[in-house]
Fold this protein.
Amino acid sequence: MIPQDFIIREIQPKDNIEIAVVIREVILEMGAPKVGTAYEDKATDQMFETYQKEKAAYFVLEYKNNVVGGAGIAQLDNFEGNTCELQKMYFLPIARGKGLGTKLISTCLEKAKEFGFENCYLETLPYMKAAVKLYKKYGFRDLERPMGNTCHYNCNVWMIKKI
């Protein structure tokens, strides 16, 4: 159950600026590098447009009419196979520790299943400890090397889950 006042919904064009701010604020808060991460992705400023393609979806987490988080799924870049990637999952502090991460992952994986994906891959950073713990709790397992090529060369924790 989602805590009161939090809404998960598909991204809309009006959300682009707010979700870009969320992504960059969290990256800076976590001490992550700006290069080789979502911080510098062109897609970060065009999230609605980025997910307007086949077998892709992005969901925002809204609290009192403000975007406070989000996550999406899309085909894993530069990978032959029926694997999607859990992408750009970031939450502002107000949204953490409330079970919303689990709910958002469930929403993304339900959509991935609808799209017919067999596996879900993700990349993160080792010092995003709460995120890594959540992914493991949700059944993602560690990989020894990256899959595909996301261009996020600073993300060196790779995980996968069968859908």
Remarks:
- The first helix runs from residue 16 to 29.
- The beta strands are 6-10, 57-63, 66-75, 83-91, 119-124, 141-143, 157-162.
- The two ends are 22 Å apart (CA to CA).
- The CA atoms of residues 133 and 140 lie 10 Å apart.
